[in-house]
């Protein structure tokens, strides 16, 4: 049978339109009716190039008094400025108001009386992990809605030790004759750097170049396309004073300040619990501090993470039992959760069926950590009938982007 060819996608024609911005969307973009207009504020009148439901500001005839002067010279419009930040034009107070509203609006769909008990904001220049795009001409982040790499001359987000890598990375690309993606993490004992290329053929010359680069810039570890090139020191991090080896590609909270704020919330909520489950535990961000006063069950899909956590706990003599388990395909069942408290910190997709099993187990305390307010609300629905929301906290590790962490503490009625 002859198949019909799918219709060709027509290039949407852009048109210039005069718009009045009436509100802010949840990601901080201006809204004009049903149109999304990034970098515009309520009350502003703009001429925008509109394609579909999205507009790009080309001219601003009326400016909101709330508009702030961006901190960074690289901040700018889609296709022009750096894609690392999108909210510098809002100013600190308006940006925080936006984030608070985003978290509260989601949680109140489940707990209508929810109030925000606190906000923990990481300081500027404290981000300890980042993914850079590197070419022979530039190193930095890509444009917002563009492909060009913006060569960063300064950055209000990155930790100075990460920012210091950018110019040398561009030099490395020139030496190798190719661009690459670079994922950098500040460990407790130096920088862990992983490079990904599009099939770079590595011979003795390239290995010598990479090894010399690691030596010159005192890297703890350097990997290329998943293979170790240099490990001058085995990278590690510390949770609750316990050192944990850092497997390649492991997840860490974006800032040390944000991590410590989350740990304080977890320890306070679980105080007095004799047995705690830490689900989606990663390397033990919460499990190891909790194990100072409780027996901990930790589960995560990443076997390298649970192995590192298990070894760290054994060396420290802490009561942590680990399991490498896909909690989406095989969530811990209610009968496996005979604990006093449960902490779960899933990826952006939310906890899925695991949240339902936690609710069935009915532990006295449940603490949900989430980087996705909508999925947090979906997970919280499982607890609405039998739990009270006793504390809601916002942890802001991404000062000039709409991303947030929400912490919800639930107590069984």
Automatic annotation (TrEMBL):
Name the PROSITE patterns for this protein: SAM_MT_RNA_M5U (PS51687)
Give the GO biological process terms: rRNA base methylation
Region described as Disordered: 1-32
Identify the residues that bind S-adenosyl-L-methionine: 253, 280, 300, 345
- Give the compositionally biased regions (Basic residues): 1-12
Q: Does the keyword Translocase apply?
A: no
Record's keyword annotation contains Iron-sulfur: yes
Enumerate the GO terms in the molecular function aspect: 4 iron, 4 sulfur cluster binding; rRNA (uridine-C5-)-methyltransferase activity
Per its UniProt record, what Pfam families does this chain match? tRNA_U5-meth_tr
Identify the keywords attached in UniProt to this record, alphabetized.
Answer: 4Fe-4S, Iron, Iron-sulfur, Metal-binding, Methyltransferase, S-adenosyl-L-methionine, Transferase
Checking InterPro entries in the record gives:
NA-bd_OB-fold (IPR012340), SAM-dependent_MTases_sf (IPR029063), U5_MeTrfase_fam (IPR010280)
Q: Which residues form the active site?
A: 371 (nucleophile)
Q: Which family does it belong to?
A: Belongs to the class I-like SAM-binding methyltransferase superfamily. RNA M5U methyltransferase family.
UniProt name for this protein: Class I SAM-dependent RNA methyltransferase
Gene source species: Parvularcula maris
